[in-house]
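Table S2 (continued). Query chain:
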Amino acid sequence: MEKVRKQLLKQVKRVVIKVGSGVLTSAGGLNMTVIDGLTTEICALKKEGLEILLVSSGAIASGLKKIGMSKRPQSVSQQQAMAAVGQSSLIMAYEDAFERHGHKVAQILLTRDDLTHRRRYLNARNTLFTLLSWNIIPIINENDTVVVDEIKFGDNDNLSAMVTNLTESQLLINLTDIDGLFDKDPRNHDDAKLIEVVEKADRKIMRYANSIPGFLGTGGMASKIKAASKVTLRGVPAIIANGLKPGILKLIFSGEEEGTLFLPAEATLCSRKHWIAFTKSPRGEIVIDRGAERAILKKGKSLLPSGMIEVRGRFSLGNSVLLLNEAGERIAVGMVNYHSGDIKKIIGAKSSEIESRLGFKHDDEVIHRDNLVLADQMETGDDQCPL
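Corresponding output:
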């Protein structure tokens, strides 16, 4: 397996490194020893020609130390205020550390809304590529001070997966405070064994995950596995490793069997379908009949008005929605061509009747097959992507 690692790493030119709060913090504040060590390693990798994007937690932890609080606040407004206090200290810590090695950094704060809209998604992508071309290291975090549930990534593990897809990076490294994925929680079981390689992040692997977050973080091992699963569906390997171990990045890029390696999927989702499936947050649901279910699952067809039974929620043209069968099971996610109010007016109609019912017509399909991702494809990937 060491040969496999070295072969995969040999192909990496651009890497996303995510660092969690459990790595960056000590007794509630930033751990400058760890930050200095990681900074030194990242600069050494850059000398070897690697492009690096850093997704960093730690704003709330830094704010705790500055204000003098002992534990993470519970209310959303307090957490957002804490992040506002701590974010400046976090970026200054990185700026000072990288400056000692002659490198500049840029702060990028994102919400899911920034990546849900295609134009803003492409703007963010172009900004990151420009920074990399200027040899500047982007340091990315969720914009905690303004984010609400509807536009929240959930945690920086999820954000790191989205950034990997956004920037077409060839590797995601997720640095946490344990050695990787174990078959049991190593904090509670002395006989816990490290899982060195995961070929597919299936339900068995998810059962191993410890979903209890750390003292300052929001994402436990379950969220790290989900993030790894998302990037492997783009054909990108992921590694979960111990960011507190000195020289961890050097060991990883030397091909040492550090952490847990998630192998890229054989069948992958193209960038657009990956964006629809994982970046755009579903805003509603459409229930379809058995005929439409068969047409979509077995024949790769689009969703037509005639196959719809019910529309749930309010959403706009271009939003993503979940498709449910008559049993209430999720079968797909897709991007709609009409507003929810208009879709309700054409339930059960033929495509030829859309204009007479609405007074206009965008498309024959409510969701075109090129904008549909099946639930199974979100686990196994899909080679059939439009150009």
